[in-house]
Structure to design on (229 residues):
């Protein structure tokens, strides 16, 4: 990658996110180094995803594996199952899809796609089915805070579906998921303050995902202008 690949604003955003994650780890955790590593990987993944770079999806696979284990330690089986059984494999499929659809041969930038209203309806119908199935699975495992955990499944599925389909709205769906996860980990922090570092992690992710959505909309406009006759 060239030195100009990331803008000054993107470097500043990533740096601030890393600083917040590191400070929260020092202040509230200091023990679970996997949480720190996962958070740093996640923040970097979002920045690369904002550029449409397939490497971001590879890092998402790594983040999903680590986050699944972290969720297991607090009996957030919904998060564990969602990330290990859905987000991680879908990130793999997205990685393959992004690599197969570079924009004008540029493997560091995926070609932005859009989905029809018919497919959007199909996505929401499928999301409803997945949510219902997962609710009963989570109930069977006595998942902590089951309602927000189930809502996390809903937002996560929409996010991974849109990621796979290369829609700019995948980041917006992830931002909604971040809000749900912030609530989940605040609840966890009320029982064990070491989990507050995870809360800060997803607060940083929220800001980055909002930026990623803005970046993809700009990228979509630029690509559409480029291919006009």
């Amino acid at each position: 990658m060239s030195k100009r690949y990331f803008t000054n604003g993107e470097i500043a955003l990533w740096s601030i996110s890393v600083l917040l994650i590191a400070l929260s780890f020092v202040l509230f955790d200091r023990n679970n180094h996997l949480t720190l590593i996962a958070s740093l990987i996640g923040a970097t993944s979002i920045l690369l995803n904002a550029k449409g770079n397939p490497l971001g999806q590879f890092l998402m696979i790594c983040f999903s594996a680590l986050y699944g284990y972290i969720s297991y330690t607090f009996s957030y089986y919904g998060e564990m199952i969602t990330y290990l059984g859905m987000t991680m494999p879908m990130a793999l499929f997205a990685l393959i899809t992004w690599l197969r659809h570079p924009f004008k041969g540029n493997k560091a930038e995926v070609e932005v796609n859009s989905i029809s209203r018919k497919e959007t309806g199909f996505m929401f119908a499928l999301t409803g089915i997945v949510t219902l199935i997962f609710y009963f699975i989570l109930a069977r495992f006595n998942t902590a805070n089951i309602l927000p955990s189930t809502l996390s499944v809903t937002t996560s599925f929409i996010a991974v579906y849109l990621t796979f389909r290369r829609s700019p709205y995948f980041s917006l769906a992830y931002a909604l998921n971040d809000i749900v996860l912030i609530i989940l980990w605040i609840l966890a922090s009320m029982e064990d303050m070491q989990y507050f570092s995870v809360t800060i992690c997803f607060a940083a992710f929220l800001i980055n995902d909002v930026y990623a959505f803005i970046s993809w909309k700009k990228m979509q406009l630029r690509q559409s202008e480029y291919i006009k006759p």
Remarks:
- The mean pLDDT is 89.
